[in-house]
């Protein structure tokens, strides 16, 4: 999933709502006045307030030239998320706590996790064990990619049960939903909330990813509605049909995979790459989805930056390209009828 923000932190720029296309270039390190190295023990001894640690983290992140995109897009947003989440404070409320003094134990904890972000180059959600989509928390670790799909934002939009143009006019009429390449299970869980009467199947090839999804399904109390299935795309589904299929499959090209920054190399590579142009798995989904949709069903699929490739390969297909706060043309909707004609 492409680099983007999926956490709503209190910071400045307003981070919106995951295989990455090309990661954004890192912010050039501040070289004019090089910062002296400050280890975690020194930071814990000398810094006192949330504001102190926020400033310290921003400086360390910028100096180290870190790359973002796993829930935040700037050093400031990353620092705010890491400090607030580590202190178990609401990630959308920074101002009330800026001048709060931390206990010695809290100072050590925050100083160590800030330093770990720099030295390991692990995405912040792997260090905290938690990521957010549309404000909903999910457990994450290195068995799954950090959830950051644009589909999460779309599910909460008027496209599902809103006024005007909709993909699904009445979400209560949806009886079965499929989430392909579920990873942490986040989209399946969100879908269970958007479609309150639906049973949801969540499929992933990785048994390890499904272990993480199982944690999230249990935490959401949805074991009776979300079924986790191990297998290769549609193969384990044995002719089941769905009203809605959601999928955020791997879609990183071979060239982009070769150039991934360190942060993205901590993620499971099988969940990122998909052939030379990144669309091998998307093509398989397009070829088979119609067999697993009800007559009025549809497919919502995220593909990153491959729009031009798909439109060239399927010139007679009118993809419905959808817009989010930070994207346009990276997620499409096709109906069962359109998929029949591919």
* Main sheet specs: 7 strands, mixed
**Principal-axis shape:** elongated
Output the strand order for the largest sheet. Answer: 5-4-3-6-7-9-8
Helix/sheet category? alpha/beta
Could you give me the name of the CATH homologous superfamily of the largest domain?
Vaccinia Virus protein VP39
Average of per-residue pLDDT values: 91
What is the name of the CATH topology of the largest domain? Rossmann fold
CATH class value of the largest domain: Alpha Beta
Walk me through what this model shows:
A 7-stranded mixed sheet has the order 5-4-3-6-7-9-8. The relative contact order is 0.14. It is elongated and about 65 Å long. It is α/β, with parallel strands linked by helices. It folds into 2 domains: 40-65 and 71-122, Helicase, Ruva Protein, domain 3, CATH 1.10.8; 145-340, Rossmann fold (3-Layer(aba) Sandwich), CATH 3.40.50. The protein has helices spanning 40-46, 50-64, 75-86, 104-120, 124-128, 150-155, 186-194, 207-220, 254-258, 262-265, 280-288, 307-313, 336-340, and strands at 130-133, 136-139, 176-180, 199-204, 226-230, 242-247, 293-302, 320-324, 327-335.
